């Protein structure tokens, strides 16, 4: 909260969080009938963002407007911890052991071998 003085009158400015700003934008469109383009311009975002907020709000309510992390949940091509541990064990700390030396033992251990393209 910020308190400022404007022409001798104390004015309280309240900073809104991301979710509150999105909710205010959604309400302007749904309740007040404002155009998506105008709301986007007023909030400094693309109209596609406002459409996404409307979709999220329709599907999940206020919870849909919470800022979501852009970090992916996982890495689909990352090897499993079991395969990683097996490779480390097979290499035994020897840096001269390469991938061609490890493919056969890993493939024969019940772990699925994946060929690189």
């Amino acid at each position: 909260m910020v308190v400022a003085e404007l022409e001798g009158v104390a004015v309280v400015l309240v900073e809104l969080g991301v979710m509150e700003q999105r909710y205010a934008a959604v309400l302007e469109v749904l309740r007040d009938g404002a155009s998506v383009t105008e709301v986007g311009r007023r909030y400094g975002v693309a109209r596609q963002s406002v459409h996404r907020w409307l979709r999220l709000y329709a599907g999940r309510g206020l919870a849909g407007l919470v800022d979501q992390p852009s970090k992916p949940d996982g890495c689909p091509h990352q090897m499993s911890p079991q395969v990683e541990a097996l490779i480390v064990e097979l290499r035994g700390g020897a840096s001269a052991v390469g991938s061609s030396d490890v493919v056969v033992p890993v493939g024969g251990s019940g772990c699925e071998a994946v060929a690189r393209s």
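Residues 75-117 form one domain. Strands lie at 2-6, 9-13.
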